[in-house]
Amino acid sequence: MITKANYPDDIPESRIELLELIKEKLSEKKKERDILKIIILGGLDSGKTTLTAFLSKELLNLGYKVAILDCDVGQKSILPPATISLGILNEKFEELHNIKPYKSYFIGSTTPIQFFGEMIVGIKRLCDLAEELGVEVVIIDTTGLIFGSGFDLKRMKIELINPNIIVGLEKEGELKPLLDLFKNKYKIVKLKVYDYAKSFSREERRKIRLEKWREYFKDSRSYEIKITINLTGSKVFQGKEISEEEKYLMEALFKWKVFYGSKCEGKYTVVKRDLEEIPRKIDKNVLYYLEPEKFEDIIVGLIDERGFCIDIGILKEIDFENKVLKIISPIDEELLKDVKEIRIGRLKIVEDGDEYLLDRDYL
Ligand SMILES: Nc1ncnc2c1ncn2[C@@H]1O[C@H](COP(=O)(O)OP(=O)(O)OP(=O)(O)O)[C@@H](O)[C@H]1O
């Protein structure tokens, strides 16, 4: 599989010093028995994942119980894509992409923009879980989004998880405004980006993601899941289901076949198909309508009762007439019984693995 980062051969002195500092902090912590949280920040291709691989392997070899919280939704090492994942390292260090997630949280996109809520809740829940499991040190790998709304996301993450060490990988002080916010509160370590760090173009990044999608779904199976399951991530399934009368009225009025409809605060949302070509004047703020095809090829999270993502799938169709969801997923059939909710994301994955980002209000 194509991956951007592995355990590095060349380790700059500054990284060794950081490791020494972490060891020191861990020996202080031994008495307190609580987890040491290290968050790694930096722009695109600044070496965050490479540093995560280095630190986690070294700490594992020293006998610590180590976890990686992979929040880099755009370029994840620990799959599935479109989630954030907690990986607990085994006795033997594997390459990051071979680590199986202990638990994941569904984001539903490969960019955090528009999904800050998911990112923040996910990071907190997975961090708490690491603590619950007795992990001694968790290394949090983040996306390279550090400007604009990415700046605020990083700030909020730090405020929420209270890290013990913030590591900033920078070229020319680009993290200063962010790190300055926390300079009196947390231990901050600024590192210079590795001189030979390779930059990847947008196209190369897209190709790597595509490869990961293909790889991840290569042994998928088709499943049919009863629509009675909790279905979230679309306004269609919020509010109260419309009555048969309301349905017939709309069908007669607009010459539609209505598959499903719901009503919330006086507003209707309806999945329909036109049966005749007639002029219709409908205020979409009062009656929002869509075709059933709008749900096709969208990424979904298969969620357990604790709200964690057991696996992901691609929604192929909602068959409203037979009340089933048709999905493809690499999930083990055995695990299907643990799925309590299907959460619809905002990413379309087409046959060749190509992805299209969708807006939050798409559904
Ligand atoms: N110490 C190092 N030794 C060798 N290569 C390195 C080192 N640090 C970074 N690199 C190389 O630089 C490139 C970018 O590093 P990496 O993927 O770790 O960055 P990142 O910040 O995690 O990227 P992203 O923006 O995708 O999150 C990779 O090809 C990696 O192998």
Automatic annotation (TrEMBL):
Swiss-Prot/TrEMBL catalytic activity: a 5'-end dephospho-2'-deoxyribonucleoside-DNA + ATP = a 5'-end 5'-phospho-2'-deoxyribonucleoside-DNA + ADP + H(+); a 5'-end dephospho-ribonucleoside-RNA + ATP = a 5'-end 5'-phospho-ribonucleoside-RNA + ADP + H(+)
GO terms, molecular function: ATP binding; ATP-dependent polynucleotide 5'-hydroxyl-kinase activity
Family annotation (SUPFAM superfamilies): P-loop containing nucleoside triphosphate hydrolases (SSF52540)
Needed cofactors: a divalent metal cation
UniProt cross-references to Gene3D superfamilies, sorted A to Z: P-loop containing nucleotide triphosphate hydrolases (3.40.50.300)
EC numbers: 2.7.1.78
The protein's role, per its UniProt record: Polynucleotide kinase that can phosphorylate the 5'-hydroxyl groups of both single-stranded RNA (ssRNA) and single-stranded DNA (ssDNA). Exhibits a strong preference for ssRNA.
Protein name: polynucleotide 5'-hydroxyl-kinase
Lineage: Archaea, Methanobacteriati, Methanobacteriota, Methanomada group, Methanococci
